Lipoprotein-releasing system ATP-binding protein
Amino acid sequence: MANILELKNINKIYGEKIKTQVLFDINLGFEESSFNSIIGASGSGKSTLMNIMGTLDKATNGEVIIDGKNISNMNKNQLASLRNETIGFIFQFHYLLPEFTVLENILMPYKIKHNKVTKEALNRANDLIEIVGLGKVRNNKATDISGGQQQRAAIARSLINNPRIILGDEPTGNLDSETTETVYDLLKKINKEFKSTFIVITHNKRVAEKADRIIEIKDGKVNNDIINIGNISI
Ligand SMILES: Nc1ncnc2c1ncn2[C@@H]1O[C@H](COP(=O)(O)OP(=O)(O)OP(=O)(O)O)[C@@H](O)[C@H]1O
C-alpha cells in the first residue's frame, strides 16, 4: 500500500547561537491505514519528530511528503489548510473547551472549518460519541466528566473532520493503566473502521505492542536494531 506520509533525511537543529541537533537523517514511510507506535527515552526527539510530521514545526532540512505533496514549499496558509484537511491531533492534555458540552466540543473543528454545522456533521458527531462510549454524557459540560471520558471526547473531536492521519503525542499519558488500554483499544477500533493512519508516541510498552509497527527513536535517530517488545520483533 502507498505511503500517506514520508520523511526523507529529516534533520532538526534547535537554536541560533548555540546549536543543538536533535534529529539526524530520519527516513520513515508510513503506510496508509497502518497503526504505528513511536517509543524512545525522554529527550530522544519523539515530540520534535511528531511536530514536524504534523507541520507544526519545520525541519532544518529534509523533506516531508504528505499524501504525495511535498510540504517544503508551502506557505503558512497552504500548510494550515493541509493540516485541517488531513491531520487530526490527540495530545496528552486534551484542551477541551470547559464552557461547552461534550457534543459541542466534538463539533468544534467542523464548525471552525465550515463556519456552520450541518445535519450530516451532527450525525457524525453522534456516531462518534457512540463509538467512544459517551452517549450518556453528550450534553454534560466538558468539566463534568472524568479524565478518561475527556480523553475519549478529545479522540472523537480529532476525528470529526475525518482526517487521513492521526498523530498522538502521549495521548494517554495522564490516564491510569486500565483506562490507557481502553483508549488504545478504541484507537485501534477507529483505525480499522475508518482506515485512518495512526502514529502514536507512547512510553507504555504494553500499548506500544498493540501497533502494527513499533519505531524506536534513540538519540535523534531511528534505531534499526532488532528490538523485542513482548512477542513483537521489529
Ligand atoms: N524549542 C526547543 N529549543 C531547544 N531545544 C529543544 C526545544 N524543544 C526540544 N528541545 C530539545 O530537543 C531534545 C528532544 O526533545 P523532544 O521533546 O523532541 O524529546 P521527546 O523524546 O519527545 O521527550 P519526552 O519523552 O520527554 O517528551 C531534548 O533534548 C530537548 O531538550
